[in-house]
Design a protein that fits this description.
15 helices, Rossmann fold, elongated, 7-stranded mixed β-sheet, 40% helix, alpha/beta, 14 strands, 2 domains, 7-stranded parallel β-sheet
Length: 348
């Protein structure tokens, strides 16, 4: 029987649909789950058992060296021995992955799913070393994140012709760009695919639903941000070619924006240099700029501690019930497909 472990809060309707019930402490001990110092919810049907421990993500701390949730995760993986782990933005360190592999058969197929897109919190080097597949749910929350960013940029109040820079034209950025076009803004896009494949630019934009004649494709970050009144940022932490986007946006980029610019970012705060974050923090205090950053809990808390005037939050961009339900449906579908394929591999 397949086992699925969920360590991040899920939609209340999903809890009801799965018939997840809290295991009484006395039963938890009898079920050999006593090593786990956290409430465990459980559901079982003919083909699978689901273990739900939301406290692992809820109790995570910004400082990984002093984060008790990481040890609880290790104990849960070691004790439950799941086929699939579903994590949110809570970290899945190498120590936990090693313990998971040591607790199960060496040839058993295992999968860690990020209930979202960004997998940076999962130690992928350790996952590769211990033969644990890593998956995510691209495209599910993107429309909701874009809507959230549009709201905080207050684009509905923008004057026609105002410049907006859209950095990252993936599933999130394309929706921001489409809405900005509808509002008759001057839309400047910056994306590797639009820079590298200029001969196919119209084709790439058409696939994204963006009319090429309505936008300007910038050739550099400087060109995109110069004089922009609005800045939308939605780029992954890790570059497809290797490395990260750390320190991509510096002081010179922030200073090049229009007066009283508004920034909404769905990327990790450290996409900005520390000097840029300090400058924005000071300007927010002076009422000269607005900056909204929605990131993981760990990164958002760090940003708020170091730069208190930033409007930093976590998981708010896709907090609506509809998005949460879609994420849950997608993660369970992916988990069950993996288990089903694993069974077929055994039969062959």
């Amino acid at each position: 029987m397949a086992r699925i472990l969920i360590t991040h809060p899920i939609y209340e309707g999903t809890i009801v649909k799965l018939s997840l019930k809290k295991i009484h402490p006395s039963l938890q001990a009898r079920a050999d789950l006593s090593p786990i110092p956290e409430e465990v919810f459980y559901a079982r049907n003919k083909s699978e058992e689901i273990f739900y421990i939301p406290g692992i993500a809820i109790k995570q701390q910004p400082n990984e060296k002093h984060d008790p949730s990481l040890e609880i995760l290790r104990l849960a993986l070691e004790t439950i021995k799941p086929d699939v782990l579903i994590a949110g933005n809570n970290a899945v360190p190498g120590k936990a992955i090693a313990a998971w592999r040591a607790a199960v058969e060496s040839d058993k197929r295992l999968l860690a799913i990020r209930r979202g897109v960004d997998t940076r919190a999962i130690d992928k080097l350790a996952a590769s070393e211990y033969s644990v597949a890593v998956g995510n749910l691209p495209g599910i929350n993107s429309p909701f994140v874009a809507k959230h960013m549009i709201k905080h940029l207050k684009l509905e109040d923008a004057k026609p012709g105002s410049k907006i820079a859209v950095v990252g034209v993936g599933n999130i950025g394309k929706n921001v760009a489409i809405e900005a076009i509808k509002l008759d803004l001057s839309v400047h896009l910056l994306s590797p695919s639009l820079q590298e494949f200029s001969s196919k630019r119209s084709e790439i934009l058409a696939r994204k639903g963006i009319p090429s004649e309505k936008v300007i494709c910038a050739q550099s970050l400087e060109q995109a941000l110069e004089g922009a009144s609005y800045l939308s940022i939605a780029v992954p932490w890790e570059k497809p070619s290797g490395g990260t986007h750390v320190d991509t946006i510096g002081v010179n980029h922030i200073e090049s924006l229009a007066a009283n610019a508004k920034i909404a970012s769905a990327s990790v705060p450290r996409i900005f240099t520390e000097q840029a974050l300090t400058l924005m923090n000071d300007r927010i205090k002076q009422g000269k700029i607005y900056v909204r950053i929605d990131s993981s809990k760990r990164r958002a808390v760090e940003a708020k501690q170091n730069y208190p005037y930033l409007d930093a939050c976590h998981d708010q961009a896709f907090a609506c019930a509809e998005c949460q339900e879609e994420l849950d449906n997608a993660m369970l579908e992916k988990a069950r497909a993996f288990v089903s394929n694993s069974v077929l591999e055994l039969v062959k």
